[in-house]
Amino acid sequence: MKILPLVAVLAWFGVLSNAAADDTSIIPAGAVAEIVSDGGYKFTEGPALAPDGSIYFTDIPNNNIHRYDPETGETTLFTGDSGGANGLMFIGGYLYACAGKNRSVDIYTGGPKPDTPWQIDAPPATHQITHYGENRLNSPNDLAFSTDAIYFTDPRYGNRDGLELPSEAVFALTDSGVQEQYAVTRVVDNLVRPNGIGISPDFKTLYVADNGDKKIWAYPILEPGQVGEGWVLNDLGDYEKGPDGMTVDHLGRIYTTIYNEGVLILSPEGERLGFIETGPQTTNCVFGADGKTLYVTAEKSLKRVVLNTGK
């Protein structure tokens, strides 16, 4: 599949608190993270902003991908056969899903339909990336995209039988020059268990959350599918659990989830700016279409909180 041009896609309550930092105005006083979708899910993950403004998210044990509509408040089932989908992302009208159980990155094609709201085509996925060279991927977890490249993390949690790769790494998908095929390149190989992943707004820096070593790493993007030597942006060793999924706002601030605790906000330089307590099983986050409503998968639900991002 050809790489597409970059497109603009950009109960329980959590108590929010500001960390000691120069800028604590991101989190409004008295703001709370409210549950917007709680449908008997077992483990929510992978929130992704769709071009129509809806939020897709996964329920891994139930093998489901759901769609939440902020306009109506309704949640509908997109597929009940997701291959254990975890992280999701919309890129150029396609839905990319890290299908951990399938050990693949699955692609659902689609786009605008005449006289109907925007929607992607019905499952199943039309394309799958399953191998690096001759070896099967470990268990793709999360993904991010830059100009002319898509990056994804490939750790392995739980049962480690059948592993074919020597490490848990970060890979890039780039244009192979062959119609409907990607070139798969390993770009980061120095982490214990890469999980969350994000890209700076200028597309010059790749961020990776190492859940195994409790660190956020930053890597300069040299060209599509190639990064330079990385550095530790922030050491999260003071937290009980490691970092999970992340997102980046329009000013380059990184919002990284800390499993079982909440969302830590970092400046592009790695300074801690604030913390959003969202409760157990906090796994991932994404901004809605307005650029200020943060959607968080936590406590077997989908939550949201409105922040002062400058949008």
Automatic annotation (TrEMBL):
<keyword id="KW-0378">Hydrolase</keyword>
<dbReference type="InterPro" id="IPR013658">
    <property type="entry name" value="SGL"/>
</dbReference>
<dbReference type="InterPro" id="IPR011042">
    <property type="entry name" value="6-blade_b-propeller_TolB-like"/>
</dbReference>
<keyword id="KW-0732">Signal</keyword>
<feature type="signal peptide">
    <location>
        <begin position="1"/>
        <end position="21"/>
    </location>
</feature>
<dbReference type="GO" id="GO:0016787">
    <property type="term" value="F:hydrolase activity"/>
</dbReference>
<feature type="domain" description="SMP-30/Gluconolactonase/LRE-like region">
    <location>
        <begin position="43"/>
        <end position="298"/>
    </location>
</feature>
<dbReference type="Pfam" id="PF08450">
    <property type="entry name" value="SGL"/>
</dbReference>
<protein>
    <submittedName>
        <fullName>Sugar lactone lactonase YvrE</fullName>
    </submittedName>
</protein>
<dbReference type="InterPro" id="IPR051262">
    <property type="entry name" value="SMP-30/CGR1_Lactonase"/>
</dbReference>
